[in-house]
């Protein structure tokens, strides 16, 4: 199994889960220290893991990385195309260079990895691919570059699912909403505080998700349990896109208390547990 972005957050959690199920996990990322930390964790837990330093946007390195994984481990049964990210900015302030950096991180890079895995292995042997996108439905103001890229990845997934079907390759996407992952450390505290304060009206399940809730969707889609699912998208978002205007005001008053319940995102224990990868 290959997990890009396996050195932190959702990718790290998925790598742990796949290794605990007996897979050899090849984790890919730019930062060797992050990958090394996860390698030690997985090996301490008795799992099998290898680390591969590669920027998913660098075609040559990606091709060489996939070739190395096949040479060293003999096969690639699954790809978690998870690496990515973005920064917060209004459209008026996004430079062309910045726009392209985000599109290359969240669309072109994932395309390169998927194509190389398919051409070098899965076209002949079959497999399963999961592409990470985001809650981009109806747009994503202040993250428009990422929304554009993820929308592309959503339809790339649908196209690949049909093109690759005859080779026995399933391709699906997972769309996380607000997840209390290490990725949120990338943003200013004032920004995440803002979205945590808005969590109740915007997320029907009234909390952030956890890394393990996203990785369980990933692992399901990779598994034989999903053998008739291809070209689909699993949303892991607490119902956020369905929270249309007015729904919150229609809640019974006793449910309409901001930040009620243990699982609220502002609960430090939830963020701390998510950061440590509570599936471990
Ligand atoms: C407000 C709360 C938000 C909650 C969101 C919740 C949902 C989503 C969560 C997540 O996705 S969590 C994952 C978060 N993790 C990451 O974002 C990590 C990966 N991100 C990156 O590596 C960068 O953001 C990147 C831009 C995608 C790629 O970085 P790279 O190192 O390749 O490019 P740079 O050389 O740094 O930059 C190129 C170019 O991009 C512009 N730019 C980059 N960062 C910023 C910034 N913070 N602000 C404004 N502009 C930025 C800029 O034009 C850069 O060019 P130069 O100016 O440096 O020449
Ligand atoms: N957390 C959330 O709420 C949401 C997350 N997502 C997406 O889910 C995925 C995982 O995010 P999450 O775990 O939260 O955040 P993290 O920032 O912890 O994970 C992102 C990972 O991607 C790797 N990465 C980023 N760019 C590249 C690149 N060009 N080449 C190789 N590796 C790269 C990073 O590793 P390194 O630094 O070593 O390069 C890092 O390990 C991302 O695509 C993210 O955007 C989507 C929606 C919501």
Automatic annotation (TrEMBL):
<keyword id="KW-0521">NADP</keyword>
<dbReference type="InterPro" id="IPR002347">
    <property type="entry name" value="SDR_fam"/>
</dbReference>
<comment type="pathway">
    <text>Lipid metabolism.</text>
</comment>
<keyword id="KW-0275">Fatty acid biosynthesis</keyword>
<comment type="function">
    <text>Participates in chain elongation of fatty acids. Catalyzes the reduction of trans-2-enoyl-CoAs of varying chain lengths from 6:1 to 16:1, having maximum activity with 10:1 CoA. Has no 2,4-dienoyl-CoA reductase activity.</text>
</comment>
<protein>
    <recommendedName>
        <fullName>Peroxisomal trans-2-enoyl-CoA reductase</fullName>
        <ecNumber>1.3.1.38</ecNumber>
    </recommendedName>
</protein>
<keyword id="KW-0444">Lipid biosynthesis</keyword>
<dbReference type="InterPro" id="IPR052388">
    <property type="entry name" value="Peroxisomal_t2-enoyl-CoA_red"/>
</dbReference>
<dbReference type="Pfam" id="PF13561">
    <property type="entry name" value="adh_short_C2"/>
</dbReference>
<keyword id="KW-0597">Phosphoprotein</keyword>
<keyword id="KW-0560">Oxidoreductase</keyword>
<keyword id="KW-0576">Peroxisome</keyword>
<keyword id="KW-0276">Fatty acid metabolism</keyword>
<comment type="subunit">
    <text>Interacts with PEX5, probably required to target it into peroxisomes.</text>
</comment>
<keyword id="KW-0443">Lipid metabolism</keyword>
<dbReference type="InterPro" id="IPR036291">
    <property type="entry name" value="NAD(P)-bd_dom_sf"/>
</dbReference>
């Amino acid at each position: 199994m290959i997990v890009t972005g396996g050195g932190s957050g959702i990718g790290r959690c998925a790598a742990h889960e796949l290794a605990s199920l007996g897979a050899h996990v090849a984790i890919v990322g730019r930062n060797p220290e992050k990958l090394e930390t996860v390698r030690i964790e997985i090996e301490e837990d008795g799992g099998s893991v290898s680390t591969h330093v590669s920027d998913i946007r660098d075609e040559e390195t990606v091709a060489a990385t996939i070739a190395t994984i096949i040479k060293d481990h003999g096969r690639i049964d699954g790809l978690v195309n998870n690496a990515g990210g973005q920064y917060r900015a209004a459209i008026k302030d996004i430079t062309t260079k910045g726009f392209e950096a985000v599109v290359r991180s969240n669309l072109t890079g994932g395309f390169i990895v998927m194509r190389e895995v398919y051409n070098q292995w899965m076209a002949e042997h079959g497999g399963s691919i999961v592409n990470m996108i985001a809650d981009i439905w109806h747009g994503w103001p202040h993250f428009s570059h990422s929304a554009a890229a993820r929308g592309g990845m959503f339809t790339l997934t649908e196209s690949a699912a049909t093109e690759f079907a005859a080779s026995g390759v399933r391709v699906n996407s997972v769309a996380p909403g607000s997840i209390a992952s290490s990725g949120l450390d990338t943003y200013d505290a004032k920004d995440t505080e803002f979205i945590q304060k808005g969590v109740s009206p915007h997320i029907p399940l009234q909390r952030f998700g956890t890394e393990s809730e996203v990785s369980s969707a990933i692992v399901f889609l990779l598994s034989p349990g999903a053998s008739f699912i291809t070209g689909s998208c699993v949303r892991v978002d607490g119902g956020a896109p369905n929270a249309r205007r007015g729904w919150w005001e229609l809640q019974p008053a006793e449910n309409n208390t901001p930040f009620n319940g243990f699982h609220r995102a502002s609960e430090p224990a939830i963020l701390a547990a998510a950061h440590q990868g509570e599936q471990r």
